Amino acid sequence: MKRQDLHAAWLPPAAFRSVGSRHTVVHGDGPLLDTVLAELREAAGRYGGTVRHGDGAEPVDLVLALSAVPAESGGTGDEGFVLARRDGVTTLLADAPAGLLHGLFHVVRLGEPAFTGERPAEHHRPALHRRIVDDWDNVDVHPVMGQVERGYAGGSIVWRDGALREDLSRVAGYARLLACCGINGLVVNNVNVHASEAHLLTDRLGEVAAVAGLLRPYGIRIHLSVNFASPVQLGGLPTADPLDERVREWWAHTTRGVYETIPDFGGYLVKADSEGQPGPFAYGRTHADGANMLADALAPFGGVVHWRAFVYNHRQDWRDRGTDRARAAYDHFVPLDGEFRDNAVLQVKHGPLDFQTREPVSPVITAMPRTRVAVELQATQEYTGQQRHVCYLAPMWRTVLGFRPWGEDRPDVAQVAAGGGLVGVSNVGDDPYWTGHPLAQANLYAFGRLAWDPTLDPAAILDEWIELTFRPDDTADPQTLRRTLHELMDGSWQTYEQYTAPLGVGFMVSPGSHYGPSVDGYEYSPWGTYHFADRDGIGVDRTRATGTGYTGQYPAPWSDIYESPDTCPDELLLFFHHVPYHHVLHSGRTVIQHIYDTHFEGARRTERMRELWRDLPAGLVDPALYARVSERLDEQVRSAHEWRDQINTYFLRKSGVPDAHGRRIY
Ligand code: GCV
Fold this sequence. Notes:
Elements: H1 17-20, E1 23-27, H2 31-47, E2 50-53, E3 62-66, E4 81-86, E5 89-94, H3 97-110, E6 119-124, E7 131-134, E8 137-142, E9 146-148, E10 159-160, E11 163-164, H4 169-181, E12 185-187, H5 195-198, H6 205-215, E13 221-225, H7 230-233, H8 245-261, E14 267-270, H9 287-298, E15 304-308, H10 328-333, E16 344-349, E17 372-378, H11 394-401, H12 413-417, E18 421-425, H13 441-452, H14 458-470, H15 478-489, H16 492-499, E19 537-538, H17 558-563, H18 573-576, E20 579-580, H19 591-614, H20 623-655
Parallel strand pairs: 1-2, 1-3, 3-5, 7-12, 7-18, 12-13, 13-14, 14-15, 15-16, 16-17, 17-18
Antiparallel strand pairs: 4-5, 4-6, 8-9, 10-11, 19-20
């Protein structure tokens, strides 16, 4: 498949119009500079500009130069750049080639303003060094999870039916899109490492190398999820004990082989002792023992192991009120703080449970000052509408990244994550629009942009994405297009929250698929995700005073703020407290009336979203894309009404409290 046959997403040719119509000179050499030159030349070929590599006499509008940026101005580091414009010339300087690549994409995002007026020197550097996308792609089609675990956009762009795809042009296109929004790492296979994926580490390493070769021109390093039991499964050893010399030697030897084949390999990702994956517990060892063994194997080559903190008992007895899944990661990992090697990164899901629509920030992020912590987000919309619903997630992620666990004037989550990085589970597949729902592309774009700069405003990121993707100024009615997309997307996370599980209680989804309502779907299951609704009230008591003690895992002031229903934020009330239905929220409404009101309101808002899209004048967006979004909005409206009716009916039946406004509940 040719690049022009792929959906261009946020890099359509027209995004390069401003750059492509300029006379540009590039100073510097190297593989990433070749990419920069190729991008510039393609754009110039289309829009009438010129591109020169090295010195010459002709006047230029744009200079990209690899040159040591004076140390007194801070330099640019490995990936940063300085942008300035003086006397009609726009200049990009960078210490390292990746900086010029990111600088070029920055100028593309700016468009014409990059070439107008004067611009004092602006220094751009990523706030987080590691900005990684995790693909949950399976090599073999998994009987339950399919080709991509929690994938809602078709098959894998890398693997098909147990083999590497012959045509990897989508991977090359993916690399380009990821680089444009700032990503520099990709984990190419699922964290659940089944038999075929395990072999990627050894006899199928050539396939990984082939993918790495497509990522490299865009400054993206490849990482691999590995199975902790590989020494047994692949090496024929009787044990995978991390302290056993034979095991350590197997990993050292195998890792050496990986670097011989892929010299810029990023490192390993491990899900251990989690949902059936093997891990160090089987040998009576700690997770620090396990992670450090891999860290030691990777260290000579500069590699890093990302070790996931998603460890909990998934075979819990629902009758057991003493076990609280939310506590698990903290209880397992915080005692190990200070024991992990410097090249071991603890990868923590942003919330204590599992990517719910609303969760508090995981206390693990706050409690391991001597460990490098990476924060994991989920762009694939497992619990947020599965790319059938519009749910723009940047506002949620911004809330997480800007949360200050130790109170005002103290570091926020993004600053803690600077030690380990930001990781996002990808939402792409071989769907023509990459993400199933075309508007879900914005989530991947926003993830990358927030990883580069976690302080960005979600609405501003959406502006960028709209301008790049839809080129409103090239349409007959730019303002209507911009306004419609913002109205559809800006508040869509809040809308989704309104018609699904209320006030932070989570789940209530269909077991297995995690799509659609099932209020008691997980209530008597072993997964540890309960809401405890009865005739009097609902919610999980996680207080120190009377509950599971989870609030005690937070530092002050949040340990106290969460402890009392009087101070706990409304949106998390049922995560932390079991309260009666007539409990009055800070909003002034009772819990039960809040449930009714938000569910009516959320479902109504989806109708409004569909109307907005229907009212979009013809010709502003591509007709096929228009039809795809229309079809998904129909499903979102249907599903939101189902959620509304099931949730409202359930709670009317449980509580016996009628809706104050007398609306129809079944
Ligand atoms: C990759 C949840 C998902 C699983 C996923 C797991 C994880 O449990 O439902 O599909 O497995 O999280 O993050 O490891």
